[in-house]
Design a protein that fits this description.
This protein is globular. With 464 residues, it is mostly helical. The chain has helices spanning 5-8, 19-30, 33-46, 51-74, 81-89, 92-130, 139-158, 160-190, 210-225, 241-270, 273-279, 283-291, 297-328, 347-363, 366-390, 406-419, 421-424, 428-452.
């Protein structure tokens, strides 16, 4: 059995996050790329009833949140789903793959945000100020997105306190953009504009049915609701996590869901679903143009730019902290758990996750990355919900939040339903990309097993 001495010599992570910062962290992580970049894609799947998949995605995420709250209260440490999987099933391979899937989802989500940064909102600003129309796939746009990822790494390295405080500012900015959309919708209703009948229209593709159309749109919209689970990977950097997590997570998810539904209603009121689908990641820019022609479009483009920056920042924070926890868990080489002696941040994990993000930004497509992120997390959430029920056999020495039994049961069923190919209506590309990523994880697991042999996993090392 490997010695844990190297980890005990590492300084502890700085507990800089209080209840208000955690609430902003949850809201800021949920708001962002999903609603700012994928509204048009969801409209293309569902039609005018655009609000419905966002509402259903919230319900599914809310059920799973109860499981996370029970588990983070019981085990307030970094590594999140990997820790819960290990404690529940004690299968080394399953623990590794869950941890790897979560890490990949964070990086793919951040990469999606980086692409939205360059290919949608930055391009719009270039048009507004310099009358320059670059191709979304141009080397210049890709290069700027890579520089943007590197800048996030520097913020991440400086420390979690600086990162979450930057998140507060960016969350307020991205929230203001969505409020603008909602106010535009309210003004349109007051003036008799818009078409309310669109709100009940469900587009059913040839050879499909209403249920499959709604499910397919919900599976994609679920990408907009992910992020709440990232906060559990910050547990070791929170003050009194057992106490502050339930209120911050549930309030944060509720606020985000209400905003999403109102934005979706506004979008459908003002613009037909086929036009939203054609606009793609620029759908909200189109809403502003139609609903408030006199509003300076560059202001909303700048807000959208900052919104996707915030999403990328938080996801890169999560991915690096997860690697840190995995290293202490001895699932991956221990040097990933190295903490900088002065900044007290896991700097090697930050460098590694940044490198992977740069590769994805250079080669991937935003829609496919969004779908893949959703799929990976739905698989993980299914396992976490089951783990929550299994771990109730293990008693805790301290009081913590306990979810009603129906929540993890329904959470596991609904997450699995949205992940299974023949019920979710997902495109094949989601499964192909996820398959490649998980195959890469399998290769890493085999290499680690050959190099170091079978090692017992010690969950208590995650907190060191």
């Amino acid at each position: 059995m490997a010695e844990a001495t190297p980890q005990t010599e590492q300084p502890e992570l700085h507990r800089a996050i209080g209840p208000k910062l955690l609430l902003f962290f949850v809201v800021g992580d949920i708001l962002g790329t999903g609603i700012y970049a994928l509204t048009g894609n969801v409209a293309g799947k569902i039609g005018g009833a655009l609000w419905l998949p966002f509402l259903l995605a919230f319900v599914v995420a809310f059920l799973t949140a109860f499981s996370y709250l029970e588990l983070v209260g019981k085990y307030p440490r970094a590594a999140g789903a990997a820790l819960y999987t290990n404690k529940a099933f004690k299968i080394h391979f399953l623990t590794f793959m869950v941890a790897f899937a979560v890490m990949c989802s964070g990086i793919t989500s951040a990469s999606s945000a980086a692409l939205a940064f360059g290919r949608t909102y930055l391009r719009q600003l270039l048009v507004e100020f310099f009358d320059v129309a670059l191709s979304p796939e141009s080397l210049a746009i890709t290069g700027i997105a890579i520089v943007f990822i590197a800048a996030l790494a520097i913020i991440n390295f400086r420390g979690v306190s600086e990162s979450v405080k930057a998140n507060v500012i960016l969350t307020c900015i991205e929230l203001s953009g969505l409020v603008i959309i909602i106010l535009i919708g309210a003004w349109a209703v007051i003036n008799g504009d818009g078409e309310p009948s669109r709100l009940t229209e469900i587009h059913v593709p040839s050879g499909s049915n209403v249920l499959l159309a709604v499910t397919s749109a919900t599976a994609l919209a679920f990408f907009a609701m992910v992020g709440f689970e990232d906060s559990v990977n910050m547990a070791e950097e929170c003050r009194n996590p057992v106490k502050i997590f339930p209120r911050a997570m549930l309030w944060g998810m509720g606020i985000a869901a209400l905003i999403y539904v109102l934005v979706a209603i506004t979008s459908s009121l003002l613009i037909p679903s086929d036009e939203l689908a054609k606009a793609g990641s620029s759908a909200l820019l189109r809403v502003v143009t139609v609903g408030a022609p006199g509003f300076p479009l560059w202001i909303f483009a700048l807000i959208g730019l900052l919104a996707v920056i915030n999403s990328a920042l938080i996801n890169m924070l999560m991915a690096s902290r997860l690697l840190y926890g995995m290293a202490n868990e001895k699932i991956i080489p221990s040097f990933f758990g190295t903490v900088h002696p002065f900044r007290r941040t896991p700097w090697i994990s930050i460098v590694f996750t940044t490198g992977v993000a740069v590769i994805l930004v250079s080669t991937a497509d935003i829609g496919k990355l969004g779908g893949t992120t959703s799929l990976l997390l739905l698989i993980v959430f299914t396992i976490v919900n089951v783990a929550c029920l299994v771990l109730r056999r293990e008693k805790s020495e301290h009081k913590h939040f306990r979810a009603p039994t129906w929540a993890p049961v329904l959470g596991a069923i609904t997450c699995a339903y949205l992940a299974i190919p023949w019920t979710s209506g997902r495109p094949f590309d989601d499964y192909k990309i996820a398959g490649y990523l998980l195959l890469a994880g399998l290769v890493l697991w085999v290499i680690n097993r050959v190099a170091h042999g079978k090692q017992e996993i010690h969950p208590e090392n995650l907190s060191k």
